[in-house]
């Protein structure tokens, strides 16, 4: 049971979201509908990031790495489904939860994402140098930060609401496996 009200799916606030997502609105969306301003900000941020330089695959891998590091099982389950739709394999999805990827450049972005989350943005010079050395530009770095913020918004919402998982659940990777970066 959610600790916050799940707005009825027939509520007028949810009409435009239902048109985009379909009739079965996920519980986090129904929680967001308690604040039309917050809901608008959430969808605006995610929609704008969808027009950025990061590919859908990389955005989902970042969401998995950050969601796992922040202990949000709902988000990890949700982004596993979305990641599959981008063509990520089960192995890539599993690796992303630990901040790993078969591609070294993507892995650098995932590690950096987890460092941003763990250090609340105050990454070290060495961490910033590492992501740059992997081939990410300053514009990419800012976009990675924005993706971490967008993911954190969803993670924190689900923590606050204690959202019930209404989709196939995915287990978190235990923190001990995630090389000392904990959020």
UniProtKB/TrEMBL annotation:
Locate the Carboxymuconolactone decarboxylase-like domain: which residues?
36-112
Name the Pfam families on file. Answer: CMD (PF02627)
Q: Name one GO molecular function term.
A: peroxiredoxin activity
Reading the lineage from the top rank, the first entry is Bacteria
The entry's protein name is Carboxymuconolactone decarboxylase family protein
Species per Swiss-Prot/TrEMBL record: Corallococcus aberystwythensis
